[in-house]
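Input chain follows. Return structure tokens only.
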Amino acid sequence: MIPTRVYSETLLEFLAPVRAFIEDATVSEVMINGPGQIYVERRGKLERVPVRFPGAESILCALNNAAQFVGKPLDEQHPILEARMPDGSRLQAVIPPAAPDGPYVSIRRFSTATFSPEKLIAGGSLTQEACDTLQALVIAKFNVLVAGGTGSGKTSFLNMLTQFVPEGERIGVIEDSREVQVQREHVFYLEARPPDTRGRGAVSIRDLFRATLRMRPDRIIIGEIRGGEALDIIQAMVSGHGGCLGTLHATHPRDTLTRLETMSMMSDVQMPLVALRLQIASGVNFIAQVARYRDGTRKLTHLTEVLGVDMETGRYQLRDIFVRHHFGEDGSGHLASQLTPTGHLPSQLEQLAQHGTRLPEAVLAAAEKTGAPA
């Protein structure tokens, strides 16, 4: 087997035109749209860079090198490659014939920097009051999902939330490709694997999730919920596995629950829709909605509690605890906004008390000022 060090240097040589960007800590993603059109994302904004590959063949050589190392097929019958580079960066590629003008490659850089609450607060992603509220919810073992669009900072936000897990708890992390960085000692990481060229050896997120339940975790963290495993996760949430954290793609808190419905229906378990909705509403306690704005910033837009299902209408009952209000652009071209408490308090305050934590005074004061019920 090729040593990782040798493979790393070989792959970077194949990717020589973009190597400087792959190694640049300010770049979060490198996008190759064929030999002559290359973009990078830096500080949340896309920019085209003046470099190019000699031809499509040179990109294919790099991709074949990556595919060979991770043991995945890449050819006309298997034109999609998802791989992990030696430094942990995620590589996604599509080649002809699925990409007639390709190959297309996206390299999401693996950042070793930890996103501390202080950094996110200083950058305007959230406020101290919202941060303290999230910390209280995580300590009290509420199930929290981080939702947002592509590139909205879901994984970074999830990494930040893991810092609120009390020391000494056993944490199981399940991912397609490793991105979550838990800042705790007692952690085990499991990673899914696709089948080989003969259809053998596949290990799905669902397989790993079921195995995790038998490994005595205090917390389960799912890097991204994207398929039928959603139903297993929801059922675990309602059966005593509190404190679950995870991410999924959705643009609004209500859309998050609808997406969970759709993904749960992808499982092999048939369940009436009303029963499924009741389980989702019971299992998911809070949704932290994040978004990337056109000025490149990534921010928390909502912290929303899931209260249940209205049995008359069949709709989910949601209540915002924090909401971001927008005021247009400021003089420097940045979007001005403010994340503020709504005055509503979480409905299960007793669970906070049971875990020795409480909401910040600013949130309690907002509730007292508005007279909103818990």
